[in-house]
Every structure is written in structure tokens, then in C-alpha cells.
Amino acid sequence: MNAPEIERLIQLVGRLPGLGPRSARRIVLRLLSDKEQRLIPLIQAMADAATNVQNCRICGTLDGTDPCAICADPTREPIICVVESVADLWALERSGLFRGRYHVLGGLLSPIAGRGPDQLRIAPLLARLADAPEIILALPSTVEGQASAHYLAERLKPVGVRVTRLAQGVPVGGAIDILDDGTLALALSARREA
Amino acid sequence: MNAPEIERLIQLVGRLPGLGPRSARRIVLRLLSDKEQRLIPLIQAMADAATNVQNCRICGTLDGTDPCAICADPTREPIICVVESVADLWALERSGLFRGRYHVLGGLLSPIAGRGPDQLRIAPLLARLADAPEIILALPSTVEGQASAHYLAERLKPVGVRVTRLAQGVPVGGAIDILDDGTLALALSARREA
């Protein structure tokens, strides 16, 4: 019923994560209702990003330069934090808690999804261990995340580098009565002196 | 911390309706992670829409042609359905229940927002009454919607055209016990023979 240009745009927007046909229609209407202030600047920003943003050849994150600003920063500590995705890297950077370097795996090991070690950026990680005093495995507390961490630890330890993982347990502000059994078991077995 | 190209894109995407910084980061990451399959086609679709989509000079909707496909369709009945927005027009078209024509007001009367009759597409509506046997006011059941409907009815009736409104009452599938008092009062006073 709509113009093909509108239907195509709704379709593409509706495929973005977290969006569906309904929210896509709303977004497309807003964009088309205010071309000069919304649609044109967005097209321009997307075109700029398409042209200038690329994966860092060292750590794999997305940035406007290659190597990325973090890899190129000499004041960053040589400790390397291994993350699943750029999203996780961004989350750690927003926290401001970590001043080392990163390595983006680009996924997790998953036999079901057919993702083995060769599909992840593991070789580039092994290639940059020389200056790293420690590798922090900041992978999700899921089956795939923990399997990937286990695999990486087995690969990295023989090289002689220190390998650590994020602590697991009760999240800050987390109530005990709504905690899942897995987390509760972990928090109990890893209990510390008060 | 991120490249300015990425931050700008997150900022613009985060201003779209229903999105915030968190969902914008997720969307931008997905776009940048798959430029060829996602970002470039979206830029192209947006550019096409920016070039080709415009407001219909007659009814005010958005379409790839002017007059729009509905206004240009000789098989459409001459009855005119007045809606607040293009979104409402799309909703009525999706229902497939109405085979007449439309008129998009472009908003509702709102003294608080400083929107008077001159800010709405009322003059173009008055200009196209000649062939219309009836005007259906399909405006929202809000204070502003009903005030606008009342104003329009007062303006249209002296012209001699039949003016109707959508029925109000219990929505289909609506439970009585969670209905607001306003709807309940309306449904009671407008009750019909069973």
C-alpha cells in the first residue's frame, strides 16, 4: 500500500536489534516527517561511519583509526582484557575501571552454532602476548562464555602468561531470594572471610 | 572515548522515538559490524526515501508520488476520513476496512502546546469538501482529540456536509473491570438495544 521507498525503509529498520514492524514504522514516520533535521543528518552520520569506522587490526574493536585509539595509546597498561564483543569493550570503558588494553574475540565457542576456535580472533591474541603480564578473561557467565574462558586458559597458560577471570557471585544490589541456584551455589563455594 | 563518527551516530539514533542511548549503541554496533549487509543498504534506502518521499499536496500523507496513490486512485470513494497523523492513516489502511479518502491534520488543537487551527491542515480540508458526501472525524479519544473533533464539526457543519465521528465504547476483547471510568461512562450512556 505504501510507496516502495517507505516499505523498504520500514523493512530494513525493523530488522535492527530490538525493533519490529511497529517501532520501525514509528521511526520511519518520524524521519520522513522531518527530513532536514532528522533524516538527512542521520544519512550523513551513517555515511561518515561507513567510510571511516573499521576494525582495529590489533584488538579488533571498531574505531575511526587503525590501530584504534586504545591500542595506539602508550599510557595504557600492557595488561590485556579479553572480551566477547565491542559492546562489552564499550561497557568496560564506560565504567572507567580498567586502564589496560583489550582483545575482542568476536564471539564465543559454540558447538551448536558451529563456532570453533578458528572462527574467533584467538590467533591474533596469541600473537600479542609478548608484552602482556596478564590476560583477564572478561567473558559472560554463560555456558558458552565459561567454556570459551576454559579453552582460552588452557591455550594461554602454557605460554607462561598469567590468566585471570572476572569474579563471580552476588551482583551488587542483588537480593538473595531472587538469585538463581547457579549463582547461589557459586557465591557459596567461593565465599570469603568477612 | 569512541570515534566521533560512532558517537555522533549513537547520538542521532538515540533520539529516534522509542530508542535511548543503550538501544542506540546496540543498533549502531550491529550496523557497523555488518556494513555491507546492513549499514550500506540502510543508507541507500534512507537516501531513496529522502529523495522520493514527500507530502501529498491534497491529503498531506507521505508517499513516493504527489498526489499520493490514494488521492490519485479513481476507485476510492469520495468520503473523507480526517486523521491526526500519517501513522493513523497507515493504521486504517492496514485494517483494510475503509475504501474512501483521507485528510491528515498534522496534529491536534492544543492551547498548551500553542497549536491553533492555523497550525493544522484545516484550510486544505475545507477546500476539498465539494465532492465529499461525508467527513469522518477519526481523531483520538483524548481531550485534545475530542476538542479538535468538536472544533472541526463546528467548522464543517455550516458547509452542509455530513460530519460523523468514530464510535466510542468498550474495545473488542476489553474487560470491564479494568476499563477506565471515562470509557465506562461513555459506554453506558451510549448503550444500544441488545
Explain briefly what this protein structure is:
The structure is a homodimer. Helix content of chain A is about 40%, strand content about 10%.
Structural class, from secondary structure content of chain A?
A: alpha/beta
Q: Greatest chain-chain interface?
A: A-B, 51 and 51 residues
CATH topology (level 3) name of the largest domain in chain A: Dna Topoisomerase Vi A Subunit, Chain: A, domain 2
CATH architecture of the largest domain in chain A: 3-Layer(aba) Sandwich
Number of strands of chain A: 6
Task: Tell the overall outline of chain A.
Answer: globular
Strand order of the largest sheet of chain A: 4-3-5-6
Oligomer: homodimer
Counting H and I runs of at least 4 residues, what is the number of helices of chain A? Answer: 7
The share of residues in helices of chain A is: 40-55%
Mean pLDDT of chain A: 93
Main β-sheet description of chain A? 4 strands, parallel
Written as H for each helix and E for each strand, in order along the chain, the element string of chain A is: HHHEEEHEHEHEH
Strand content of chain A: 5-15%
Query: How many individual domains of chain A?
Result: 2
CATH class label of the largest domain in chain A = Alpha Beta
**Radius of gyration of chain A, whole Å:** 21 Å
The end-to-end distance of chain A, rounded to whole angstroms, is 67 Å
